């Protein structure tokens, strides 16, 4: 339910890390981490400084388990592994025995893959996924959704002219407006580094 709350909190991609472990022959996700990140309609880039901060907090709390779970959304584009996803899996699998990766969509579709690196290098794709849903109160779901919104920095560019950014503009149907001319002054410009 935590992952679902993160995924459904936005209309952009979102991603994070976590931990997983084998228990009785079953690979279980044990924790989710949501670092700050730059997101868009077809990408997410985790803030590496914030990943390091979260790892430091875990270590101070005595949790030294490796970050061996990577999750991200494709919003509603489908559950497939892009070239960027393949590269990310390869990079994350370095130095750990295995990683579990999940790509998910807001409609509930998910795809899982296991990258083994010890004792041999092997990729297992389209793994079966079973979701356990213990009861969670509505306040907790709202807190997870807010956590996701606080972690995201949206990067949006105009489709008509990639040199002209899009802006948040109150009163627009979807909240976004293209900057079409030098004298087009939106109410709030999203500059690089802005968190919304």
Structure description:
By secondary structure, the protein is of the alpha+beta class. The protein is 22% helix and 29% strand. A six-stranded mixed β-sheet has the order 2-1-5-6-7-8. Strands 4-3-9 form a three-stranded mixed β-sheet. Strand 6 (98-104) and strand 7 form a beta hairpin. It is globular. Mean pLDDT is 81; it is low at 160-172 and 174-196.
Unreliable spans are: 160-172, 174-196
Task: Output the number of helix runs.
Answer: 4
Order of SSEs, N→C?
Answer: HEEEEHEHEEEHEEE
Mean pLDDT score, rounded? 81
Helix content: 10-25%
Largest sheet: 6 strands, mixed
Distance between the termini: 23 Å
Share of residues in strands = 25-35%
C-alpha geometry: globular
- Specify the structural class: alpha+beta
Strand order of the largest sheet: 2-1-5-6-7-8
- How many β strands by DSSP? 11
Q: Measured on Cα atoms, how large is the radius of gyration?
A: 18 Å
Task: Provide tags for this entry.
globular; 4 helices; three-stranded mixed sheet; alpha+beta; six-stranded mixed sheet; 196 residues; 22% helix
Brief account:
This protein has 4 helices and 11 strands, in the order H-E-E-E-E-H-E-H-E-E-E-H-E-E-E.
Layout of helices and strands:
Elements: H1 2-7, E1 15-23, E2 26-33, E3 37-40, E4 43-46, H2 48-60, E5 69-73, H3 83-93, E6 98-104, E7 110-116, E8 122-125, H4 138-151, E9 152-154, E10 166-168, E11 176-178
Parallel strand pairs: 3-9, 5-6
Antiparallel strand pairs: 1-2, 1-5, 3-4, 6-7, 7-8, 10-11
């Amino acid at each position: 339910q935590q992952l679902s709350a993160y995924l459904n909190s936005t209309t952009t991609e979102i991603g994070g890390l976590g931990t997983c472990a084998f228990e009785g022959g079953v690979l279980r996700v044990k924790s989710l981490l949501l670092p700050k990140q730059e997101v868009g309609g077809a990408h997410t880039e985790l803030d590496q400084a914030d990943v390091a901060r979260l790892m430091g907090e875990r270590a101070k709390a005595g949790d030294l388990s490796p970050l061996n779970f990577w999750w991200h959304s494709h919003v509603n584009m489908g559950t497939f592994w892009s070239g960027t996803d393949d590269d990310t899996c390869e990079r994350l699998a370095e130095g750990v025995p295995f990683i579990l990766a999940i790509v998910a969509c807001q409609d509930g579709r998910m795809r899982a893959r296991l990258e083994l690196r010890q004792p041999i290098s092997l990729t297992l794709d389209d793994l079966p996924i079973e979701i356990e849903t213990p009861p969670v109160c509505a306040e907790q779901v709202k807190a997870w959704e807010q956590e996701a919104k606080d972690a995201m920095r949206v990067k949006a560019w105009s489709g008509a002219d990639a040199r002209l950014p899009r802006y948040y503009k109150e009163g627009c149907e979807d909240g976004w407006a293209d900057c079409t001319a030098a004298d087009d002054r939106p109410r709030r410009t999203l500059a690089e580094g802005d968190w919304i």
